[in-house]
């Protein structure tokens, strides 16, 4: 390099060196570094989670430390957020000696103490963030002394008695000196102040741009004075009990970009001018059932990208002007009163990510969504859409994760393009009119599909083999279709994570394949209402580690209760009986999220003498129902090992032998039905001692002996014991039994509908009719005078009993129908 060039560059080199020297020596004054080190030593924090304090070192320049900013050697900003700091406020005492601080961030720590009133010492503080730092109790009045504050965040996710409160001082006292504040975040603070009080206190903050007061226990009304905040861009008051209409004057907040009033118990008409604020990007008034209104004509070049009106009473059609919202990313109009057809211009909403129009009364066909390449969630379920769904509507949607078209009237074949979407996790097409054969899933082993629900359609033919190669499948619901054929595939090796499998109400036949046993995570298996035959696979009865529900009812199985059911202690519901006893259905409940859907099992079982609809099968509820079969032999003793049983129904079978004394093991049993079998012997006293047993039916067997005394078993009605010719003692009356063990004639059922006459013994009926025929005038009165007919129905038993004292009458319920039982008692 020439001497001339060196001479030219030397001044710049010296200047640069000089500047660098000044910057180094000018950083972090000694006493400032000393204060920071004292603060670090006082604080108690988790070193494994720390990313700032753990690296503060005495030998380094403190202005270079993570979380520290300086100006002329003085610390002006301190960010100790997410440092897992815990302990009392005394540990923060050094902080308040850093007098040049303009910004303090202690968010997301675990102080578990009150806010230190010493914050008043930081006279220059402009930004204070104490959100979710674990502070508790009343916000001190000293915070109001921070007159230069620009942003204040005291938010907390804790709204219990251990969270922050703003009562004394109230919100007006806290805000009285905040003339420069631009951002105020008080989410989760218990304020509990009337609407006009807090609204008027806020309306004086003329520079306020961001106001966030969610979950603050605020009460209404929502006051129009908030319209004075002309600089406001973000207004979040969600999840408060505002209980009022939305003031039309809020439409004058021309700088508003976000308006969140969801879950506020709002009512009245929502003004259309609020939709038309040109700067508005987020509008959420969801979860306000009392709020109603209709959609406007959206202006061109609208800014909205998130519109949520779900769970309100908005009504009317979806305007064709929706296509003006070019930036629209999320549109949720679910659970409203919208109707009409969807405008074809919706196909132009190319930025859509989340579309939910479920639970409305939209009709007609649906537009194509193949231009919305970012779409991840599409929910159109529970409407009145109809017609064929072209496969081209969904082509190329590589980001689509969930599609729900359930409970509509779509017909034709299932669009094959849906099977090619590799990101798709939930495909729900239940209760439509789709028909024909299903296409195979190409590259099934690479598919992301976790839930497939095609129930309640008219699909036919065999199940495509590729369905059972969907490796991530968790739920498969094909019930109520016309599928047929046999199931011979090795299901378990290809779908190891399958949790729920229902093939019920189809036309499958052949044996139940043992491959069902290989599904390691299986919790519920419903194969009912098909034509399966043969025996139940032994391995299925032994699948005790996971299986909670097994429904094989309404098939053509010829099997017996295997001893191996005794090992199925995890089984919560088991049904192997004819179709008129059980109706197993699945209820679909949509929940917010990426198409997340919970499936609750609803079954009807015979329990405690009546049919019960169980909304879902609780883990705590364990029921076995083997009723109405031809099971014979003794009651399997292995059943007595199922100590979690709450309900056991073995009625309407041919069980014989004694009632096992080991029934005493079933300490949780609440309902027991052994009626209409051939059981014999005494009632074991162990059965009588079951303290939770509230309903029991032992009727129509061959039991003998005295009903155990001194137990709650004697509190049951006599109907629970009738039809046992050798049984006596309370609650049976003398007419039903007694020490002499009177024999009773078989029961005669009489009811007053046309189907019951075949159950009446005609010798008794003719006797009654003969008696009445002898009184012609009396019959005339019975036929033509309603009052006499009522009198007759009430007193005919007494009349017959006086003429034929050997007759006994008792009323019982059978299958929901009331019967009069007429018996001959020779004693």
Coarse morphology: globular
Put simply, the count of helices is 10
What is the terminal separation in angstroms?
137 Å
Give the % helix.
Answer: 10-25%
Q: Summarize model confidence as the mean pLDDT.
A: 80
Task: Tell me the number of strands.
Answer: 54
Per CATH, the superfamily of the domain at 502-728 is Ribonuclease Inhibitor
Q: Regarding CATH, which class of the domain at 502-728?
A: Alpha Beta
CATH topology of the domain at 502-728: Leucine-rich repeat, LRR (right-handed beta-alpha superhelix)
What's the architecture of the domain at 502-728 in CATH terms? Answer: Alpha-Beta Horseshoe
Low-confidence stretches: 1-26, 579-585, 587-621, 734-794, 799-827
Rg, alpha carbons: 38 Å
InterPro entries: Leu-rich_rpt, Leu-rich_rpt_typical-subtyp, LRR_dom_sf, LRR_N_plant-typ, RLP23-like
Subcellular location: Cell membrane
Main location: membrane
Pfam families: LRR_1, LRR_8, LRRNT_2
Question: Can you put this structure into words, describing what you see?
Answer:
With 827 residues, the protein is of the alpha/beta class. Among the domains are: 502-728, Leucine-rich repeat, LRR (right-handed beta-alpha superhelix) (Alpha-Beta Horseshoe), CATH 3.80.10; 749-824, no CATH class. 12% of the residues lie in helices and 24% in strands. The chain has ten helices and 54 strands. The protein is globular, with a radius of gyration of 38 Å. Residues 1-26, 579-585, 587-621, 734-794 and 799-827 have low confidence and may be disordered.
